[in-house]
Amino acid sequence: MTLTRRQTVVGLGMVSAAGARAATPRQGGTLTLMIEPEPTSLVCFNTTGGPIIAVSSKVTEGLLTYDFDLTPRPELATEWQISEDNLRYTFRLRPGVKWHDGGEFTSADVAFSIALAKQSHPRGRNTFSNVTEISTPDKLTAVLVLSHPAPYLLYALAGGETPIVPRHIYEGTQADANPNNNAPIGTGPYRFREWVRGSHAVYVRNPDYWDKPRPYIDTLVVRFIPDASARVAALETGDVDLAAEIPLSELARLGSLPTLGIEYRGFEYTPGTTRIEFNLDHPALRDLRVRQAIAYAINRKVVLQTAWYGYGLEAPSPVSPLLPKFYDASVESYPFDLAKAERLLDEAGYKRGPDGVRLRLTHDYFPYGDGYRRVADYLKPALAKIGIAVTIRSQDFAAWLKRIYTDRDFEFTNHVMTNVFDPTVGLQRYFHSAGYRKSVPFTNAAHYSNPEVDRLLEAAAVEADPQRRHDQLDAFQQIVSRDLPGVNLVSVRQSTVYNRRVVDFTTGATGISGNLAGVYLTS
Amino acid sequence: MKSLGLFLRNPTGLAGSSLLLLVIVAALLAPVLFPGDPLDMATTPFIWPLQDPAFPLGSDSLGRDVLAGIVHGARVSVLIGFASTFVGVVIGTLVGACAGYFGGRLDDLLVRLMEVFQTFPPFLLIIVLVSIAEPSVATITAAIGIVSWPTVARLVRAEFRSLRERDFVLAARGLGYGAARIVFLEILPNAAAPIIVTTSVMVATAILNESALSFLGLGDPNLVSWGSMIGAGRDQLRTAWYLVALPGAALVITVLSLNLFGDGLNDALNPRARGR
Fold it and tell me: Among A373, A466, B15, B96, which is most buried by a count of CB atoms within 10 Å?
């Protein structure tokens, strides 16, 4: 095995600082973090649920962590090498790391955890599908052997994506039902103390953490507050120091308060694109001209300003502009043009009837938060202008999932497509024809199928050359934007509202969903 | 006629009925006063009341005309309020009349049925019914009606139980009248007063229930309702309080007018309250 391309960082976890950093961080204090909704488990090896990832990462770490530009940095792995043929990943592990119960962290834990992710994690199944063997030549070395290159694999090793769990606790048990999921043991900066369901979870400082003198704070309290107004009030009174799920309508006012600030960084690992998705089996929506007409009738600027209060970027491509490494800005964006939209509908044979209506469609918005409902409220009058009468249909989350992905009893919907850190991991399932799998949520509900797109996605999934892969993904974005299985709308900019006494809570791409090892309080 | 005179001389009843008339007229004239869909984005977002003469009550976060929303919202409130009460009164009267008139096993069975319905928290039951079906005017009307009938049924049953032993009923039986004729033509007119009074309060409750449903986002998303306006404005409560206060005021006035109307009716129709 030759090790020509050494992507090596031998480091002590030096990460770029967020904001002004005092010379010496202050020790002590209690930090309160707000998570919404309450997680259903405290370890994220089998889920992509945001709240679970956020709590899991404080205890259960990953091999790597990532800078704002997604450059990998050491966490439990200190050094990593990828063989020239891109089929062999060798990780040198951090020596002297202890589990919270005193056990020694070794390569066996890594091998076990990656095998577990391959088996149980919704994305891990694909991320590690090419991994044929995980060997552990010694206690501090883990080697992944692949059947094909996996260019995204190195970016999927954050604690929130592929958590390294203690083998001695999970081995031989049914992992999903392991009591550790509700009272976790990890290697992280905080030890689990208690979880009071419906209220809060408490974590305390791990004095034996590998990155001394971190962590600086004594106690980390994670609170769950279901009511949005109460969440806002808790920030204003100082009951809560950090929170991400804040109504966009309140953000500007909160940011203007002297005690609070807003941080937009720390979400680079999980960008997403909101979009309309059409059911291509619908007789009218099967016609490309009808879909184009709808695209031309939508003003992204207005969607951004009204539905998302201006927090975000217009997003014409399925790849989010917040994922600049892969985003192709040159795709067809369908600039707002009502005359063109009307002409396309005329050509498609949908003439205005005596009541001015050309076509009636039902819209099912994604029932999560307030924004998608507001997009629906925008679409109804916007499409009425070109003679498409839209009926909005409300339902709860479970009913929406069943309608869109199991029954496919819908015409068009608006929802969000999470890109995560790589289009192969985040987007392939929405556009590859094999992603049309009934009953699997967040897949190809449109029933979109284009052999060229399939070929490009498959090639990009195993393409080791970054430039060639970039070209393939650009071509994919171009074709999908022409075929229009959906209209991409906006990439919403997520944010953390913080109390100004909190420093260094966002030091990388995962923000407050990272391990928060470096956070400290000035008062 | 004597009752009508009494009602018209009662200031409470008169105030209630005039306000109610105003709401009903607004509901009827909404398409004339504000043609077009009140959910359209008519102007720029967040115009405050009295700022722009074209939009006297301002605009919401999506630039929708608040005044048009309130006037059109009256339609939904009045429609669902009266329709669901009608459903509730019809079911309740039929069940209550059968139980009260026939008594015996049938009475036991129907009373158990009322108890089953009354043990559910009514609003929770409405939410469950609307979530199972899709939210629309028809399903919301049906759900509120289904939840409200036991109140009427209990009242009607009690009236029928006392009236069925009266001499005029015995006389009707003696003349060989059938059960249906006795129930609907002899007893029901004599039991009507309390039903009518209850009805006015039921309409108010139904309007509140519809608003609460819409507030929670379970209303018909294609129609503007006072509840949905309050629900949408809640996010901006701190920055644009009028978005909650104005439809809230409309709701208060309507429900108050129905209660005053009911009080006036009660005073006019209740023989024991007369001459107070």
Answer: B96
Residues A229, B61: C-beta atoms closer than 8 Å: no
Any CB–CB contact under 8 A between B103 and chain A?
no
Compute how many other C-beta atoms are within 10 angstroms of the C-beta atom of residue A28: 11
CA distance B179 to chain A (A): 46
- Position A459 scores a pLDDT of 96
How far does the CA of residue B136 sit from the closest CA of chain A (Å)?
A: 9
Chain A residues near residue B72 by CB distance under 8 angstroms: none
Q: What is the pLDDT of residues A352-363, one digit of tens each?
A: 999 999 999 999
Residues of B in contact with A380 (CB under 8 A): 37, 39, 222
CA atoms within 13 A of residue A388's CA, in its CB half-sphere: 29
Tokens matching residue B157: 């049953």
For each of chain B's 276 residues, which pLDDT tens digit applies? 677 777 878 888 899 999 999 999 999 999 999 988 898 888 888 899 999 998 999 999 888 999 999 999 999 999 999 999 999 999 999 999 999 999 999 999 999 999 999 998 999 999 999 988 888 999 999 999 999 999 999 999 999 999 998 999 999 999 999 999 999 998 999 888 889 889 999 999 999 999 999 998 889 999 999 999 999 888 888 889 999 999 999 999 999 999 999 888 888 887 665 544
Task: Domains for chain B: give ranges and CATH numbers.
Answer: 76-274 (1.10.3720.10)
Contacts of B137 in chain A (CB under 8 A): none
Q: Which tokens is B23 given?
A: 């709401």
ipTM of the complex: 0.78
A·B CB contacts under 8 A: 58
Residue-by-residue DSSP string for B51-64: TBTTBTT-B-TT--
Yes or no: say if A71 and A2 are a contact pair by the CB < 8 Å rule: no
Of the candidates A381, A384, A394, the beta carbon closest to that of B221 is on: A394
